[in-house]
Amino acid sequence: MVRETKFYDTLGVSPGATDAELKSAYKKGALKHHPDKNAHNPAAAEKFKELSKAYEALSDPQKRQLYDQYGEEGLEQGGGGGGMAAEDLFAQFFGGGGGAFGGMFGGGGMRDAGPKKAKTIHHVHKVSLEDIYRGKVSKLALQKSIICPTCDGRGGKEGAVKTCTGCNGAGMKTMMRQMGPMIQRFQTVCPDCQGEGENIRDKDRCKRCSGKKTVIERKVLHVHVDKGVKNGHKIEFRGEGDQVPGVLPGDVQFEIEQKPHPRFQRKDDDLFYHTEIDLLTALAGGQIHVEHLDDRWLSVGIEPGEVIGPGEIKMIRGQGMPSLRHHDFGNLYIQFDVKMPPSNFNSPEKIQMLESILPPRKEQPPPPRDSMVEDYTLEDVDASGQRRAQGATGMDEEDEDGVPHGAERMQCASQ
After folding, report:
1. What is the pTM (predicted TM-score) of this model?
2. DSSP string, 36-65
3. 195 SS3 class
4. I need a surface site. Which of 165, 230, 309, 360 has the fewest CB within 10 A?
């Protein structure tokens, strides 16, 4: 005697119905009430879900036994609630999008998960800024699993691999345990096949793969690093990953990681360079030389009379990084540090000469006449004091995005 008959009533069968009668009733009701056939009938869609829920429970012997004994509440407490979606059950029952019933309503509501695929193998490929500037092809070796060529992925001799009878090939067994009025339902690895779903006698196992169905192979891939590629860019090799019997081969994905550079900093397609010049060059002009990323040397002239201030930034147009695929070039920004001469380098005569050449000193407004004035001299500051002072005054600040003040911002080229 069953505790309740709701699921049986939904399918229109008696509690003593056979598996064939359950299957026939679900088939008839699912085709009649499928949402694609009743697009403007919400009641039909709801009925379709109820039919699917009922059939999913009663078509499983363990769930049916639980339902007959404890009803729908016992089924949910025992872990049998939820289940697959109605569309997924329908697709599984009728063979997905194909078969005799596949697509009979146009397939508007069907969901095709597609064939299973092995996991993607991820690698980080560290590349120098020179290689990104010029482009290169890297040969990278990796270890991956392939289908054993000796047994064709069976794991043993042909006909020697048997489906495990303990779990019907699932690799897992469903167990139920009664704890007072509650039913606990849980899954565990099948002890008969250790979760493999198959049994192979030791003498019939493949000698090359030892029954594992796959072997390890070394594969060399040619990774094309395009000019101007960005940090974090991903390069994918479809189907070059691990192979597993019964699923599609996985992919291999390389992520570009740009190495730090001793001379240049990069921001999108622009390059930033620091150089130090003496006071004479800053005031009277001169020349600096910059070693670029492609072994060229840039000879940069500072015109006489073009005064360069400490921390000032200048630009050389078109000497930055190439943009990915378009290969237009960004700009090269040069920030100047002006090295001052040492103390006491001047004699009184030279100081007079400087006073005659340089613009006059800026007059400082005097203190009020009635104020108290004290005289002081400046002292040198050690390294610790320099760090404290710079932290307090915000010296050598950069914007949050790492670009020095005054640098022109450039739009990224579309990719």
Report:
1. 0.56
2. TT-TT-HHHHHHHHHHHHHHHHHTSHHHHH
3. coil
4. 360
